[in-house]
Amino acid sequence: MTMAATRRKARGRGQSYGVKAAPYSFLLPAAVLFALFFALPIGYALWLSLHKAEVRGLGLGKGARAEVWAGLQNYTAALTDPELGHAALRVLGYGAIVVPVMLGLALLFALLLDTERVRARSFSRLAIFLPYAIPGVIAALLWGFLYLPDVSPFHYLLGELGLPQPDLLDGGPLFLSLANIAVWGGTGFNMIVIYTSLRSIPVEVHEAARLDGATPVQIALRIKIPMVAPSLVLTFFFSVIATLQVFGEPTTLRPLTNSIPTTWSPLMKVYNDAFLGGNVYAASATAVVLAAATFVLSFALLKVSNSRTKHRGNR
Amino acid sequence: MSHTLHRRLAATATAVALGATALTACGSSGGDDQADSGPVSLTYWAWAPGMDKVADLWNKKNPDIKVTVKKQAAGDDLVAKIITASKAHQAPDLVQAEYQALPTLVSNDALADISKEVGDAEKEFAPGVWQQTTLGSDAVYAVPQDSGPMMFYYRADLFKQYGLSAPTTWDDFAKTARALKKKAPDKALTTFSSNDSGLFAGLAQQAGAKWWTVDGDKWKVGIDDPATRKVADFWGGLVKEGAVDNQPMYTPAWNKALNTGKQIAWVSAVWAPGTLTTAAPETKGKWAMAPLPQWTKGDNATGSWGGSTTAVTTDSKHKAAAAKFATWLNTDPQALTALVKESGIYPAATAAQTSGALAEAPDFFANQPDFYTRAAGIAKTTAPASWGPNVNVAYTAFKDEFAQAAKTRSDFGAALTAMQDATVADLKKQGFEVAP
Using CA atoms, how far apart are residues B193 and B403, in angstroms rounded to an integer? Predict the structure, then answer.
């Protein structure tokens, strides 16, 4: 064996070691951040959810409170709590309005902006997107003031026209009012996602369709929508998760009306338990249940959409 | 809580009105320096505006104990923050805490017993106020800072126009509400609001309710007691017959109703002028203040709504120094004058309530020059309050149950029972012993 060969071999080995280590060292910062700010808090929440505070005597002063193992007690309490069930139902009803309306509008606007003869494209795009830039709490406050019967311009107009004036912060209209805030704020973002994906469809595809005599509506329905299906799935996904986690809008509107209980949505219940009831243990359990439900739902959705795409690919 | 926010706004307004006087320290009396040896540094979490300026007065006189004020969010948010900080043993030396939050904080072992350091201050306060800082024990967990004796506010001009007079009993109050409805159906005397539990708690307190009491080693919850039930039924009846409105307070609609005279009275507390200044600016000089209506003619009692204390935490390494500052802040005439001017508070110390700092009526009530003289008289009649370790749970239950009842104009008694049940259930769930 020559010296050169040995050296080459040695270098080769060293190189392969360096190459093997490289991905891990690149991963390290992300892994550390993930562990510190994601895995650790989740782990702590899990730990909290399995404990409870035990009070001795009057529970005043030193040593009156101890953290003890609770097993699955908090989980049984969370799952059998009718409040949580009611909250989940309310959020489902709310989501049933928000998700289809918001995504339908986003798709419609994206398709309209993508047509050939559209005017003032960038202005319209900005105008539709702008509400997304307004912080959720501010938006909820603004809308809340518009809904309040005594100061609402809608109410005034309806009154002037001699039409009935429904209380927009009560009963069925309350769901529409809350959904309206989410749709108003979220349509722009989803539209941009879908629009970007529309713009990435190769021009030849459109051209071919047009040469074959397809009308703009046919192009939209048969070509564009199927081709942007992945981004539709994505936006659907985001919207469902955002719906499950709705908190800001109902919390902001709550002081304005007698109709929104402090446990309107599941997250409001978590907040209430943790920061008003002072029971972080029960709140953690509810949060874990909520996270698990979101996870299962997301996983199922992904699975369904993946199998569909695969199926289509095989054809 | 909302009223604290309003009070804060109010206080800011007051500070501006007073020209935000830059206070200079006299420093003539000098600091007494027996307590701790060596310079000590204290941190103080408070939300009252201008507290840093008041602390500066202390710092100039006491170079050996330096207090740094860290401004915080008001009320419940701060309670959650203190408990969290206390769990991590990172709590500041001093905190501002509302009276009803004290048992919750003590129960979380966040507040130190400072009875040895501040015991002498007891005589400076009305017994009903001081007793709230001891939780009925030998310990003292805080020094009272401000208080919110409740009063009846009404539009003097509109009362005159409709031929009404300020009610002296709750019976009169109901009659006044009905008389107004008859004369002006689109107006209401006031509203029953479900979004500030403190108001209802104060009204119950006036009626003689004791929501939490200690029975040996057990807590006794008396939310659904005869006194509170009387209050709930009274308001429930008025809401049901439509004599008063049922919409919540502190909304733009409520502001408008006060500003335009759609609602012509408000059951509130001593800090109301500040709230009215921002909510109903156009009605300046048209309001008058009277004592709260009584349950029995000739009685003389009021409740309290709002008010806070200065407490020393268990994490503090310089408890004696912190307690010394807390005592100075809330009993020293110079400090109290500064608190009134800078923070716009109504001092809990009885001597300060009739002091020069409160000689002039609030700007909004310039038509009632003896405002604070009357207020001091009313403050003396404050009924004792009793708080327990889960006030927030009861308050949240109040908001949910009474919102529902007010909305549907249904039985307030049922809502009260639900509130009692929720409070007891929470205590039991936390492992407290609850007396039947």
Answer: 8
Percent of chain B beyond pLDDT 70?
A: 91
| CA dist list (Å): A200 to A204, A228, B342 | 11, 9, 61
Q: Which chain A residue has its CA at the smallest distance from B195's CA?
A: A255
Share of chain B above pLDDT 90, in %: 72
pLDDT tier at A16, thresholds 50, 70, 90: low
What pLDDT, on a 0 to 100 scale, did the predictor assign at position B4? 44
Task: Say which residue the tokens 């308050």 belong to.
Answer: B395
Q: How many degrees, rounded to 5, is the angle at CA A178 between CA A173 and CA A182?
A: 140
CA gap B258, B260 in Å, rounded: 6
Q: Does A146 touch chain B (CB under 8 A)?
A: no
Is there a contact between B205 and B129 (Cβ–Cβ < 8 Å)?
A: no
CA A121 to chain centre: 28
Identify whether the C-beta of residue B96 lies closer than 8 Å to the C-beta of residue B48. Answer: yes
Distance (Å, whole) CA A242 – CA A98? 10
Q: Confirm whether the ipTM is greater than 0.95.
A: no
A-B C-beta contacts closer than 8 Å: 110
Give the Å distances, CA to CA, from A51 to A3, A153, A281, B29: 66, 51, 6, 54
Interface contact B271, partner A, CB < 8 A: no
Tell me: pLDDT of A311 over 80: no
Asked if B217's CB is within 8 angstroms of A58's CB, the reply is: yes
pLDDT in tens, A93-138: 999 999 999 999 999 999 999 887 778 888 988 999 999 999 989 9
Q: What is the pLDDT of residues B338-392, one digit of tens each?
A: 998 888 889 999 999 988 888 888 989 999 999 999 999 999 899 988 899 999 8
Q: Which of B264, B288, B119 is nearest to B187 (CA)?
A: B264
User: How far is it, in rounded angstroms, from Cα A282 to Cα A288?
Assistant: 10
Look-up of token digits 């002028």: B273
Here the tokens at position B157 are 């001009």
Residue contact B400–A279, C-beta within 8 A: no
Summarised one tens digit per residue, pLDDT across range B282-300 is 999 999 999 999 999 999 9
Alpha-carbon distance values, A16 to A13, A22, A28, A165 (Å): 5, 10, 19, 75
Mean pLDDT, chain B, rounded, equals 88
- Contact (CB<8Å) A65/B80: no
pLDDT of residue B20: 34
Contact present, B279 and B371 (Cβ < 8 Å): no
Q: DSSP letter string over B128-146?
A: HHHHHHHTTSS----EEEE
Contacts of B101 in chain A (CB under 8 A): none
Q: Sort out which chain A residues have CB atoms less than 8 A from B80's CB and list them.
A: 274-276, 278
A65 in B contact zone (CB under 8 Å): yes
3-state SS class at B312: strand
Write the CA distances from B371 to A25, B61, B292, B354, B357, integer angstroms. 72, 33, 14, 11, 13
